[in-house]
Design brief:
The protein is mainly alpha-helical. The protein is about 65% helix and about 0% strand. It has a single domain, classed as TorD-like (Orthogonal Bundle). It is built from 7 helices and no strands. α3 packs across α7 and α6 runs antiparallel to α7.
């Protein structure tokens, strides 16, 4: 019997948008993101998230006005061409006081992605702890949940997919994304696209954490090493 997963598919649309939005813009990115923003707005409205839906519509209008050249200029203004020290889009730069700890985060993520059959695109020349990669991985997990429900794989498979999402949010995104969007919003000029995007991602992630009864944990550069992840925390057989 199929299990209703409309809400999960809506969440997937938002993860897809945010994942692409934090990548370096390519030719046509502004138009693509504007279109995806409208789709994501409809998904947010379907979820009852009126404020986020309206914000996503506004994001699309900003992208239409900027065009691709303007989008690239805004990206470079905020993120530059290298790792920005004031708002780095990498998990390993938050709460990891030693190079060894950063390496552990990267190794854990790489192993986890491989376990789900995920490989970074050859055209994506960045680290596995980039915010875009982590958001895209959550999109994959939500799609797996949708697939398990639609194909009638049973409540247990759906539960496993939900558990994998909860584990990834708990161990990764909840530990740093709140700090990241706060710093990004502080750096981006008032009314700019990336300042607006930061607040939208913050609102979306707050709802995600609340749905799984998680609390975003702002971390300092001296926070202790995270406990070792267990493979069973991320099993999803869809």
């Amino acid at each position: 019997m199929a299990i209703a997963t409309d809400g999960t598919l809506c969440r997937s649309a938002l993860y897809e948008l945010f994942s692409l939005a934090f990548q370096y813009p390519k030719e046509g990115s502004a138009a693509t993101l504007a279109s995806m923003g409208r789709k994501a707005a409809m998904a947010a409205f379907d979820l009852g998230w009126q404020q986020i839906g309206e914000g996503l519509d506004e994001l699309s209008r900003k992208l239409d006005a900027l065009g691709n050249d303007g989008l690239v200029e805004e990206y470079v203004r905020v993120f530059g061409h290298t790792n920005p020290k004031d708002c780095p889009p990498y998990e390993g730069e938050y709460g990891q006081s030693h190079v060894f700890q950063k390496s552990q985060v990267l190794a854990e993520l790489s192993t986890l992605y491989q376990a789900f059959g995920v490989q970074l695109s050859p055209g994506f020349k960045d680290r596995p702890d980039h915010v875009s990669v982590e958001l895209e991985f959550m999109r994959l997990l939500t799609l797996k949940e949708t697939y398990a429900g639609v194909k009638g794989h049973g409540e247990e498979k759906v539960r496993l997919c939900r558990s994998a999402q909860e584990s990834f949010l708990s161990r990764h995104l909840s530990t740093w994304v709140k700090v990241f969007v706060g710093r990004l919003a502080g750096k981006a000029p008032e009314g700019s696209l990336y300042g607006h995007l930061a607040r939208l991602l913050e609102g979306f992630m707050e709802r995600e954490f609340a749905a799984f009864q998680l609390q975003a944990a702002p971390v300092s550069s001296t926070s202790p090493e995270a406990p070792e992840a267990k493979e069973e925390d991320f099993q999803c057989g869809a």
